[in-house]
Structures are given as C-alpha cells and as structure tokens.
Amino acid sequence: MSGRHSMENMLQFLKLVGQLKQVPRKGWVYRHVKHPESVSDHMYRMSVMALTIQDRGVNKERCMKLALVHDLAECIVGDIAPADNISKAEKHRREKEAMVHITGLLSEDLHKELYQLWEEYETQSSPEAKLVKELDQLEMILQAHEYEELEGTPGRLQEFFSSTEGRFHHPEVLALARSLNEERAHHIGKQGEASLGQATNQDSHVTHNFITSL
C-alpha cells in the first residue's frame, strides 16, 4: 500500500471514529433524556476509568485500549439497545461486519490489533475484558445518576441500576458502585423528604382555608 493511499485510508478511519460523536446512546433516548450522551462520551469516561484502576493484576494499558475499541462498530451500525428487539447473534453479526470494514482501512498490524481487541471484549476471554465490561456497566449507572440529578428526578432511571445487580465483581468496581448507590440513596431520600414537606404544607393550607371558612 502506498504512503498516500495509506494516509487516505487513515483519514477515512478517523472520520468513521468521529461519527461516534454523533451517535446517541439509545437507552437514554428511549427514556426521553434531554441531550443524551454520545457513544464517544461513554467510551471516553470508560477509558479514564480504566486509567485509574489500581489493580496490578491486570494490564491497565490493555484495559484502556479495550475501552476505546469495544463500541467502535457503532459508528456504522449505531447503538443497538435491548429495546430494539435485535437478537444477540444478529447484533454480533452486524458489528463484526462493521469491524472488518473499519479495521480494513488500517495497516496490517493495526488491523490485527484493533480487531483482536474487539473480539477479546466480545468473547470476554481475558481478565481485562471482564473488568472493562464491568466498567461499561458502572459508567452507565453513573451517567444515569447524573441525569437524575440534572433533571431533579431522583430514582427515575432505576431500571438501569436494576440491570446491573449482581454483575459487579472486581473490588474497585464494587467499591465505586457502593459509593455511587449511597450518594444516590441520599438524594432520593432528600427528594422524598421535600415531597413530604410540600404535601404537609399543602394539607395545612387546605385545613386552614377550611377552618377560616366556618
């Protein structure tokens, strides 16, 4: 492959990657979240999460690479959510086809590396892939909590939290999830107290009006 042709292909590859900035995460779209994050947003924070892992028993650099590559196919196929009623086999087929095309734009070494990273994540065939899968779920519920805060609707996105029950095993992920759930429970509790106080005030106002009308 000539140098010029190689750079043309690399440019096309980078433009495809850039499309991830325009692909919204479907779960938020279906729950009518205003200004839902993009797939690119999600992958970036996952990569930062991987960067901050302290566990020396896993390859941190590989975790970061897995986080950057795991949803790459979505620049072509979009974010396929469970609510789309597409089977796992069909989802995998579409994403595999997309990854073959995307990585085919790269040099042989890069093509092999990126495709193998994606395949490793898909098959969950390494400790790093398993950890990054947990980071994927953790990033999702952290984002759900942030949307609840932004909207002032604590607890509205509970189904995202419920979907992760029993799926966290790594000590650092468990600790972060515990901290997140404690903060969220506190916010839900405060909202409940505020609602109760508002209802009490309304009841008092109605009672006052009733008494003064006698």
From TrEMBL:
Query: What cofactor does this chain's UniProt record say it requires?
Result: Mn(2+); Mg(2+); Co(2+)
Q: What is its EC number?
A: 3.1.3.89
Record keywords: Metal-binding included? yes
The lineage's top-level taxon is Eukaryota
What are the UniProt keywords, alphabetically? Hydrolase, Magnesium, Metal-binding
- In this chain the HD domain maps to 39-141
Q: Which family does it belong to?
A: Belongs to the HDDC2 family.
Protein role: Catalyzes the dephosphorylation of the nucleoside 5'-monophosphates deoxyadenosine monophosphate (dAMP), deoxycytidine monophosphate (dCMP), deoxyguanosine monophosphate (dGMP) and deoxythymidine monophosphate (dTMP).
- Protein name, UniProt field: 5'-deoxynucleotidase HDDC2
What species is given as this protein's source?
Electrophorus electricus
